[in-house]
């Protein structure tokens, strides 16, 4: 019976992977046909919704079920992982920005006390956006790999690679960088893989998808607001080193330390979902 279950899970993980790796390129093709506007596009909607739609179909109609989805908060028994999810991005971003400012690699002259308002306006839309993402990545793919008995670190790496590759079709459209994509994209992949270890360990130990939603939402709301609203600017030529976004080498290093510490802390844990 276990072998049959493993085959079914392996099949469904393959289907999920195929869907998420292709949906962004399908979205780009749709955009070429129908066009885009300042509010987004039909293709972007396809790209964002497809992973969650695949999750719903696989869990509801293809035998995966909902038992390990992680919809319960489980806050009371997981205070530390929840606090880590809330504090990690603010602390690491502050460290990166302070170091960058001290070294004159980051210009913070445009920072103002209007940042909290801009952050607050970003929180709600980012929260709903990340329900679509995290209900798929940490609500489906991560627990399915855990259930197959794979090495947990390898499971996090697999999720991170697929998560990163899912971003690429629209990353090519949405990014604003003077850097060569030949160096930028590999760092994005590494950054998201390292971040996936943190997300995955917190998902594993809590058995809940909500800490990942919180972590992802704060990451987008803080870092994207700082960069896109131009509260700070990384000096040209130092983006690869000190960007507070996941592709910055200093950010990657800090995240890797936290991820490996969590992995070591829970190495003997058997608290699956």
What does this structure look like?
By secondary structure, the chain is mainly alpha-helical. α1 (2-34) runs antiparallel to α2, α6 runs antiparallel to α7 and α6 (181-206) packs parallel to α9. The longest helix has 33 residues, at 2-34. The protein has nine helices and two strands. The protein has helices at 2-34, 42-61, 79-102, 115-147, 152-174, 181-206, 210-228, 239-242, 249-265, and strands spanning 106-107, 233-234. The chain is globular and about 55 Å long. A two-stranded antiparallel ribbon has the order 1-2.
How much β-strand is present in the residues?
under 5%
Helix content: over 70%
What is the residue-averaged pLDDT?
93
Task: Give the C-alpha Rg.
Answer: 19 Å
Main attributes?
273 residues, mainly alpha, two-stranded antiparallel ribbon, 2 strands, globular
Report a brief summary of the structure.
With 273 residues, the protein is mainly α.
